[in-house]
Amino acid sequence: MDLKRELALELLRRMLRIRLFEEATIDLFHAGELPAMVHLSIGQEAAITGACLATETDDYMTGNHRSHGHPIAKGAGLDGLMAELLGKAGGVCKGKGGSMHLADFSVGSLGESGIVGSAIPVAVGAGLAADVLGTGRVALCFFGDGAANEGVCHESMNLAAVWKLPVIFFCENNGWAVSVRATELTSVENISVRAAGYGMPGVTVDGQDPVATYEAVAAAVARARRGEGPSLVEARTYRFHEHAYGLRVKNAYRDQAEVDEWWRERDPLPLFRRRLLDEGAADGPVDAAVLDAIEAEVRAEVGAAVEYARQSPYPEPEEAYRDLYHVEEVPA
Amino acid sequence: MDLKRELALELLRRMLRIRLFEEATIDLFHAGELPAMVHLSIGQEAAITGACLATETDDYMTGNHRSHGHPIAKGAGLDGLMAELLGKAGGVCKGKGGSMHLADFSVGSLGESGIVGSAIPVAVGAGLAADVLGTGRVALCFFGDGAANEGVCHESMNLAAVWKLPVIFFCENNGWAVSVRATELTSVENISVRAAGYGMPGVTVDGQDPVATYEAVAAAVARARRGEGPSLVEARTYRFHEHAYGLRVKNAYRDQAEVDEWWRERDPLPLFRRRLLDEGAADGPVDAAVLDAIEAEVRAEVGAAVEYARQSPYPEPEEAYRDLYHVEEVPA
Amino acid sequence: MTVTSARRAAQLGFLQAIQQAQHEEMTRDERVILMGQDLRANVFGAAQGFLDDFGPSRVRDLPLSEAASVGLAAGAAMAGLRPIVDLTVASFMFCAMDQFVSQVAKSRYMFGGQARLPVVFRQALYYHGGTAAHHADRPYPMFMNVPGLKIMVPSNGPDLKGLLKTAIRDDNPVLCFEDATLWGRHGRGPAPDGDDHLIPFGVASVPREGSDVTVVGIGGGVRHALDAAADLAAEGVSVEVVDPRTLVPMDWPAILASVAKTGRCVVVDPANRTCSAASEIAAHLVEEGFASLRAPVLRVTSDDMHVPFSPKLEKQIYPSKEKVVAAVRRVLGMEK
Amino acid sequence: MTVTSARRAAQLGFLQAIQQAQHEEMTRDERVILMGQDLRANVFGAAQGFLDDFGPSRVRDLPLSEAASVGLAAGAAMAGLRPIVDLTVASFMFCAMDQFVSQVAKSRYMFGGQARLPVVFRQALYYHGGTAAHHADRPYPMFMNVPGLKIMVPSNGPDLKGLLKTAIRDDNPVLCFEDATLWGRHGRGPAPDGDDHLIPFGVASVPREGSDVTVVGIGGGVRHALDAAADLAAEGVSVEVVDPRTLVPMDWPAILASVAKTGRCVVVDPANRTCSAASEIAAHLVEEGFASLRAPVLRVTSDDMHVPFSPKLEKQIYPSKEKVVAAVRRVLGMEK
Ligand SMILES: Cc1ncc(C[n+]2csc(CCOP(=O)(O)OP(=O)(O)O)c2C)c(N)n1
Ligand SMILES: Cc1ncc(C[n+]2csc(CCOP(=O)(O)OP(=O)(O)O)c2C)c(N)n1
Ligand SMILES: [Mg+2]
Ligand SMILES: [Mg+2]
């Protein structure tokens, strides 16, 4: 493959972080330790990771309810994220945000949004700040195929395009919005065709391929940094689990066979592992032991995060009454 | 021209109704008889009339703040509209709506909207009713180039497209949204290119040409009645007066030369008159006397409307407290 | 044992109430249609069998386009349908606020009475369950500030059914807020008979009579009021619980009459405190019932705070039985 | 004659107040940017010369995309700018309600304090001038129900200037509602000196002291309060007028102190009556100041009605001097 070894392995590492982190949340769910349902990105790791690694740590990012993968791929530490899911004081949002509202400003993650589509203009605003302040940063905006039909998505794209802001609109088209097939809610097959309506480039890539995704987003990032404005990148991917883990939908709405086939044929983790082994990186071969070592490292990291989260105390009740406003510290 | 005489003359008649009605409002404004500023459609009569005459009286319509032309072209009586502008009891909305909120349900006009873009989904809903009830009606939705950037416009187009509803989205692209040139607010030159993002046909026509507009909308209406779903028709036109008559904008924002050129070269009324005389209708020539007679008739109609409006009493104060809710008449 | 089972079988919960009301009214009137996100798969559990029974034209899954969905319903209503829109979670209403205010609430008035808008919007108040700030709003007071809407916030399944059926038959727009803390057993009540159970708007119920203090409860607040009343009865305090059931129109005569009797009032409202329904009730009481007030009207509301995620943080911000008991004691001068 | 001119020259109206506050703060801090519809052409009259003085990067015309505009400002604020957004007319805020609630108001809290949102949204309460229902809303009470926002509704140019400058320097989101009935001479007041005129939030002013009754006025309501006070003085009634100036935070101590003195209160609020700011003030007063109340707190608000177009219909629905006088008489027992 075209990527250098270091980058290729980092892609794998972050994909694994998402997968193993979320598998751990499944265990926590069954153990009754999760306070609420979680929306898993399992199956979508390649798209998310490919997109995030095409940005720098100080670039901005916003996302949605299916939120764990975004900050993980952007480089957030797992401890604070896991503690957040458990509603603990050590959570990245002090236990106040929870699964749908993760944010880690230290890696440019300005927040996920439980209101679908609602954080899209926030990313455009971050792009505006980068533009006005001349920092050279870009903003990466994750949204789903369902969110693409929200009005604010349209407004945001037009605004970013007309002002040529450094924004990458990244659509994780996983084929479904909860129980409804994307094509029943959206009047076009590929969201990327809408880019032409804003005079910006639009491209659809295989979201199960981290390299293809990385390359498409890297091109969009380069364009944005050159001051040429936003792009829309759509990654075709699939939601491997139920909309939210733990949700029981009354009527069956998607064929188990469809799900099984994606697991069997299109699981991004074995696919990428195989490819790394088969093709190697641009600067040399990759061997299985290295990959196994990475997996072991990530497994340990995730284990430590679960431990950290369990050990972290619950917030004090008064914590509920802090952070509504920023309050100027009175100098001593 | 391809149109039959009757239709061609009706196009002219309704264009004249708009023009002379609005010229009368200018006089009323200067006479201090108008309670508020008015948004004039002068210059846009061909687009509006071409669109409306492609529908039937019982088809639905919604519009915007630049509202007089729409109900006039749809066939509303001038008396009630003029009285409405004066806030009189004989107004089509009993004096409660005013210039920006005209409606005449008797001709399918479900209401103009002072909130720009806000009535777009209402038209889609009317289309839904037609579809569910099987009435065969269509809904014509007027909006401006500025409104095209409202989120609800996007949502409405997607919804109409995915449900294949009988809706014609009709954009009066007059090149300006108040003081800003459309191309500075909208990332594409032609709004119609956005249609592809919804999988519906999109076309741009010369909005100074009532025949071209009529034909484009007639095709869209036919398609809608066949159950094939919505279309987007964009008419390129121009706002001949200030955004609102009586508004004084502090800084000059458009060249007077540009305005003058439109008046001189592209005024739809003399253009259409000349064409009628030069080309005749499909079923025979048209002579000037007929056109003059129509103009005289319309002038009389408008004069009568002004008289009606002036004579109409103001509503009783209690009228302000009626119509908030529909109240079931108690049978005697 | 048999009696108990029979009594149990005759209980009506929130989800069945919705299911029944919608099914009966759609059967009764072909113009009634049902639209919502994830409706056909019945994700929220109150639309079982609708697609089969009424077909795809009348049972529709909406895209994530709340503003257009609300405007669509307004337009459809003006053109002859009687839509029910299931917006699922009340927090999503903000996306459609302009459509609620500018089209749904204003069209009839602005157009001088030409429009009729027989349309019902249903949404859950999805708080108290770890959903955090983006799903847990209780925004009905904001809509009370908008003229032209009717608003129901029922406290039990039978009321929900009866009011929802009335709402569907009303020619005016109705917002139906469903307090999700009542989805389970707390929302159950004796199942009404037949398919003609209609409850008029603007008529409060008095689920418990008393003489010392009036507690007005809204939605899930009624439960806390009743629980507090039971506890306080043990101490000899006689609490009257009034459930307005609809906030617009509000049954002012019933509330004023109760307070005229007791001279004291506590209002229990799950909404945020500032400009809450409780504020309105307190303001109205002091304006119209000042002479009968022997103590301040106290509001037991949610604190003015967003909803925190952590289970250790969330519940304290809401009204509770304990807070109601404390407020009743205060108005009775039983404690400072 | 010379004196009069000098006094006239030293008056500050609403539009100049905005112009000055924004210009001074943009000069002071490069991170402050100004965005709005039709700003560069200065359609609303408070942005003369800004494009020349601060350049196109910091002075931007927004498309008709209110939701994105508000979210954009939130994101820009989180990433280091200090945006001022001129939304022009408050009625357009509904289009962006989700962004106000879900992003602007909630982000700091939800993310555990990571976000700072130094952003100001300005909008006119554009009623009383024949604009009809779609432009004439006075929706600040709806936003009072949303925790996390600060809200100012000034009643004169000097206050507007001082509060707006404070707002721009605040690290929290502020909504600045500008009552358009004060755009002309009614909004003028003595021009403050220098470019350091800052008024803190949460501090009421008392434009007229009195002892018989407290009249709390909001925005344009202050004018009616003062006019009524002047009329009533002629009859020997001493009215104290309190102007909270900011509704969030509200200066409760000042309002309570005034009512503790007078024992009577009327609240004048141009918003719709139900769940108005007046309702909140009345509810709070009865809760915290019951002992000092000698009469019901009366609300003089707009009627719960949309704004009709006709000049013969519109004005009656709003508060007026006459309505305030009548309410004061009622609380003083001067008439039934
Ligand atoms: C504004 C809004 N509407 C509806 C919902 C309920 N909801 C949560 S996720 C979801 C589907 C989102 O689909 P998509 O954007 O494709 O994301 P995915 O879940 O497939 O990752 C819905 C309808 C919501 N949270 N916010
Ligand atoms: C939601 C909303 N935003 C802003 C305005 C103020 N406004 C009224 S008309 C207008 C421009 C509309 O432009 P366009 O849609 O092109 O219509 P045109 O006036 O050119 O006919 C604006 C900004 C409004 N009325 N509603
Ligand atoms: Mg999806
Ligand atoms: Mg225009």
Give structural notes.
The complex is a heterotetramer, with two copies of chain A (about 325 residues) and two copies of chain C (about 325 residues). The longest helix of chain A has 26 residues, at about 5-30. The mean pLDDT of chain A is about 95. Chain A is α/β, with parallel strands linked by helices and about 325 residues long. In chain A, about 45% of the residues lie in helices and about 10% in strands. Chain A has helices at about 5-30, 45-55, 70-75, 80-85, 120-135, 150-160, 180-185, 210-225, 255-265, 270-280, 290-310; strands at about 60, 140-145, 165-175, 175, 180, 200-205, 230-235. The radius of gyration of chain A is 19 Å and the shape is globular. By secondary structure, chain C is an alpha/beta fold. Chain C has 13 helices and 14 strands. Chain C has helices at about 1-10, 15-30, 50-55, 65-80, 95-105, 105-110, 140-145, 155-170, 220-235, 250-260, 275-290, 310-315, 320-330; strands at about 10, 30-35, 60, 80-90, 120-125, 150, 175-180, 190, 205-210, 215, 240-245, 245-250, 265-270, 300. The mean pLDDT of chain C is about 95. The chains are: A alpha/beta (about 325), C alpha/beta (about 325). At the A-B interface, α6 of A face α6 of B. Bound molecules: thiamine diphosphate (TPP) (2 copies) and magnesium ion (2 copies). One thiamine diphosphate (TPP) sits at the interface of chains B and D.
In short:
The complex is a heterotetramer, with 2 copies of chain A (332 residues) and 2 copies of chain C (336 residues). With 332 residues, chain A is of the alpha/beta class. Chain A has helices at 5-30, 45-53, 69-74, 78-85, 120-133, 151-162, 182-185, 210-225, 256-266, 268-279, 288-311, and strands at residues 60-62, 139-144, 167-173, 176-177, 180-181, 202-206, 231-236.
